[in-house]
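Weekly puzzle thread! Below is a chain. First person to post its structure in token form gets bragging rights.
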Amino acid sequence: MSNLTFSQALEHLKNGIKMQRTGWNGKGMFVFLVQGSKFVVNRPPLLGIYPEGTLITYNSHLDIKNVDGSISTWSPSNGDVLAEDWQTAT
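Winning reply:
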């Protein structure tokens, strides 16, 4: 699917589908939803903020696969939100 609005892309993200913009210059970049989870603190950096063994809730968020293969947290820009060139990632 292509030529989608951000609202449409967001619905796909919520359903586990990776999304990208045709306007992005970086080859292989895409956005995906990381589902929230719970885990027990057992290593830095949270160890030292919370006592070891504390149950933490990790909230859902969006991440992006960058051109170099690394993963970063991602928030859409105004341009991303207003764009109508969203498509499912290949």
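Puzzle host: Confirmed. Bonus trivia for everyone else. Helices lie at 6-14, 78-82.
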